[in-house]
Amino acid sequence: MFVDCHIHISLDGKDSKKWRCLITEKKYEPIKDILNLYKKKNILVLRDGGDNLGISQIARDIAASLGIIYKSPGWAIYKKGKYGNFLGKPVSGIDDFKDVFAEIRKVKADHLKVILTGLVDFDCYGKVGEIAFTENELTYMVQSAKEKGLPVMVHANSPMGVKMAIEAGADTIEHGYFLTEEELHMMAEKGVVWVPTLAPLGNILENGELRALYSDKIENIRKIFDGHLKAIKKALSLGVKVAVGSDSGSLGVHHVQGFFDEVRHFKKCGISEKEIYKMAVENGLKALGMDAKSEFLRRTPIS
C-alpha cells in the first residue's frame, strides 16, 4: 500500500481549465477512472489540497465506494485578494474565517488547509509570494482546527513563512522552499511533517515540452530544485519526518504517475526506493492523522 499525501483531483496536470469545466457539468466518470488507476497501482490513501468547486468532496465519496481512503479539506483557506482562488475560499480576517470554518465543519472536512504564502518566483531565485496572514490570524485558524480534532496542512514557502506556520502549530508544511537549518530543526523538534513536493519542478526539468515552456527560467528552476534536494537531505539527517506528496494535478504532474515521479525525485537525495516507500507510508499516515493500526491498514498489505 502507498500513500500520496498531496494531490489535487480538481486539476489534471495538462489542461486543468478543460478538466474543471468537465467536472462542473457533473461528469464524474473521469474522477472514478483516475481513482481506479490509483487503486490498481496500490495507492490506497490520498490527501487532497482542496479546491473551490467541491470536487475533492465528490472524489472522497467515489473513493469510499472503491475502498480508497481519501482525505479532503473541503476547500483551502486563503487571504482575500491573495494567491489561492482556485483552491478554496477567501477570508479577510478572523471573523470571516469563523463563518467559513463553520461551513467546512458542515461538509465534514478531514483537515484544514491554509495557504499562507504565494508561489515560488521562477524569475528571481529565493523570492516567493508574500505571507498573507498575520501571526494572530494563522494561530487562531490552526488552533480552531485543533480544537475540533482536525489536522492542519499549511502551504508555506520561505524561512519566515515556514517558521510562522510551525510556531502556529501546523501539523504539516507543504512545499517549503528555501528552508534553512533553523526551520528544519524546528520541524524535527516539534514533530512537524514536511511534504516537499518535488515533482512539479523535477518534472519540468525532465520534460522537453515543459523545459521549452520555461526556457528563460530553466536555470533558476534547476537551482531552486537542487537547493530543495539539499534541504531534504539535511532534514532527513536531523530526523525531520518527510512525507511523499506529489502535488499531482499541477502542470506536468499527472495523477497516479505523479506519485512514482515523486519517488524517483526523492532518490536523488541518496535514499533507497525501499526507504522512500517506507517513509511515504509511515510519515504519510502521520500527516493524515491516521493510526497505522487501524482496521483498514491491518487488512491492507504495506508495500
TrEMBL record:
A Pfam match: Amidohydro_1
Keyword check for Iron: no
Keywords: Hydrolase
Gene Ontology molecular function: any one: imidazolonepropionase activity
EC annotation from Swiss-Prot or TrEMBL: 3.5.2.7
InterPro entries, alphabetized: Amidohydro-rel (IPR006680), Metal_Hydrolase (IPR032466), Metallo-dep_Hydrolase (IPR051781)
Database matches in SUPFAM superfamilies: Metallo-dependent hydrolases
Domain of life from the UniProt record: Bacteria
Domain Amidohydrolase-related per the UniProt entry, residue ranges: 2-293
Class in the EC hierarchy, top level: hydrolase
Protein name (database record): Imidazolonepropionase
The organism's taxonomic lineage, starting at the top: Bacteria, Bacillati, Bacillota, Clostridia, Thermosediminibacterales
